[in-house]
Amino acid sequence: MNMASIGDADPFTAAIPATKVELTVSCRNLLDRDTFSKSDPICVLYTQGIANREWREFGRTEVIDNTLNPDFVRKFIVDYFFEERQNLRFDLYDLDCKSDNLSKHDFLGQAFCTLGEIVGSLGSRLEKPLIGIPGKKCGTIIIRAEELSNCRESVMLQFCGNKLDKKDFFGKSDPFLVFYRSNEDGSYTICHKTEVVKNTLDPVWQAFKIPVRALCNGDYDRSIKVEVYDWDRDGGHDFIGEFSTSYREMCRSQSQFHIYEVLNPKKKGKKKKKYQNSGTVTLLSCLVDTELSFLDYIRGGTQINFTVAIDFTASNGNPSQPTSLHYMSPYQLNDYAMALRAIGEIIQDYDSDKLFPALGFGAKLPPDGRVSHEFPLNGNPQNPYCSGIDGVMEAYYQSLKSVRLYGPTHFSPVINHVARYASAVTDGSQYFILLIISDGVITDMAQTKESIVNAASLPMSIIIVGVGPAEFDEMIELDGDEERISSQGRYAERDIVQFVPFRDYIDRRGNHILSMARLAKEVLAEIPDQFLSYMRTRGIKPGPQPPPYTPCPPPAVHPLHTRRGLFPSHRRQRCYAPPQTNPSPPEIFRPSAPPTSAPAGSGAPWGSGQIKMQQGLHPALLLASANIHWHRPLCTTASGNEDLQAQQSKTHTHTHTPLITESLAVSCDLQRRYFGENKSALQRHGCVLVTSLYLLLYSVQNVNVISFLVNKSCELY
What is the mean pLDDT of each run of 10 residues along the chain (717 residues)? Predict the structure, then answer.
């Protein structure tokens, strides 16, 4: 289920939604397209953009087997805009196989409406006939809308049954529970189904977690109806009985069991004296928890690590030819580059260092022509990191010029590569996302499945983008939305793969920015849920959130620094002051044998190898002082005002930071105080050192250390 907004597909011009609305779909009297059983229906929702009027798939419900009257549990959560006409289309299909390609399934009918039409209907319930098959009555569709509350609680419930009615002739019953929340008009909306427990009258159902919003929309006293059924293979489930409760009532049962009588109104209506109930259902546990969001973890410091893997197999075509998927056109990005930039530019915002490993697979590498399925795009196996998405793009283009496209297409090596790193950090501080961009058939399918099953227990997700016109049936199989992927009898712990074909998101008018936005929105939609599923199953809580911003008090002023010019009145205080401690003074760093004069016209500061700094010193401070030393004359006048103004003017041409201006003033003042009119190289370097130390230590506001180092530097020079 995709939680995307309905309206204009352009995310840059979309309005702010008024609220989120949950749509629940039911159908009655659908066409029966199966010969020996009933239809297996699924509902697909399409939305229409305002600008281009194109229909785009928004989401799908689950498949319900053997029924012509489905009540779908999976909802569509959409953004509601009062000021827009939000056109919707609901298509019904009878699924005949596991393929996601709808053209391979039987069409059952469709209905058109607007979101406003649903919301504005009596009780926010819209019933319309299904159309689309000439000459046939396709049944009806019922759509209910309800505004979602902002309730973030969830509840873990577990029930068991006792002495339920026997419904099967040759056995007992196969019971399951169906939960409904009540609506304002007195109707009910399905919100959960338990699993079926076979051949027992005393079932114990597995505990399940459900958002309180879904159970009662945040209204603790709203009625919740629970129906008990006996499952039948033909879809005609036998009704055993029902009971009612509320969220508040269930919460009161946290310290003790709560027993509900299961009543069948038909049996009770016959006034049989012996009828008491159709069994009982007991609430075994009710655990309430506040739902943590993806942003809670990001604010708590969790880092998202992004790795990209690009297909360099020969099926992509010769990169020098315009028909190649790797063709480097001077006018536009190819599909690989568009997918890479679209997804990477969003993910990089959650990575503090912006360094991304970029891998390739399926190519022959120079100089020996060996085939590799896990090579760094930058050519450095010891350090495959690229700086930002621009660095990844540059490495990708350089690789196209140096490697030879070959084959076959193996996914497992790059998946295992990321999994090795993810397995080393399982405390929730980091989460790994692997983007694989490929054009064709996977040739190591068994190994890839095994790698995904293993990776499902690690803090990582895999995004697969298919480019080109090929069929991607194998890649669709890896996306475990409908059926969890398995390998050698082991099932993946959770769904970590999201696959999309890029061609489905390309704008027909050639708007590549819009194509990239559509792709990113689709492939990243499942990442927060996959992320949260890992954190929840491991019981990992978000880290402490950073303290709120508070202005720092002005630093204490040492008597040594009270002279005019050392503390300009316009100086802005830093936002984050370190703890006020008195550490032992750090070692002095010394300039080592600088040249007697700088190269003429040189714009560079001291060479990086000529100054050795203690770890933790801020290089920008020394850089500022060194720039002043090499490119400005020393002040020689008593006041220094004229020279100071001239130097400040020159400073502005080199850098636009107030730090340089202040360091110049400090340098001039300290020179006048300690060195007078002497311009020897040693003393000039001493002035640079003193200035750097002053700026460094003033930044940490430690008066004792400032005094120590200023005095120490004066003794040395």
Answer: 36 48 94 85 90 84 93 91 81 89 93 88 88 93 85 88 86 92 84 93 94 86 94 89 93 80 84 81 90 79 90 92 91 88 81 87 93 94 91 94 93 96 93 92 92 95 90 80 84 91 79 78 83 91 70 52 37 32 37 37 34 35 40 37 42 41 51 49 50 49 50 50
167 and 141 fall within a common domain: no
Cα-atom radius of gyration of the chain, to the nearest Å?
Answer: 34
Q: Model pTM?
A: 0.52
Residue 214 lies in a domain: yes
127-154 burial code (b ≥16 CB/10 A, e <16): ebebeeeeeeebbbbbbbbbebeebebb
For residues 255 and 319, state if they share a domain.
no
Asked if residues 211 and 157 have their Cβ atoms less than 8 Å apart, the reply is no
314's tokens: 């020969």
Q: Is 333 exposed, middle or buried (0-12, 13-18, 19+ CB in 10 A)?
A: middle
Report yes or no: 60 and 43 within 8 Å, Cβ to Cβ. yes
Cα(406)–Cα(412) distance, integer angstroms:
17
**Residue 405 DSSP SS3:** strand
> Looking at the structure, do residues 311 and 268 belong to the same domain, yes or no?
no
Q: In what order do the strands lie in the sheet with 76-80?
A: 76-80, 19-28, 140-147, 125-129
Mark 278-295 as b/e (b = at least 16 C-beta within 10 Å): bbbbebeebeeeeebebe
Do 231 and 252 meet the contact criterion of CB atoms below 8 Å apart? no
Tokens for 503, please give them. 């061609």
Is-contact 635 673, C-beta < 8 A? no
Looking at the fold, whether 481 and 608 belong to one and the same domain comes out as no
Inter-residue contact 362 to 409 (CB < 8 Å) = yes
Owning domain of residue 429: 302-537
Q: What tokens appear for 493 in the block? A: 């712990």
Residues 662, 705 within the same domain: yes
Within a domain: residue 546? no
Q: Nearest 5°: phi and psi at 254?
A: -65, -30
In this structure, are 134 and 251 located in the same domain? no
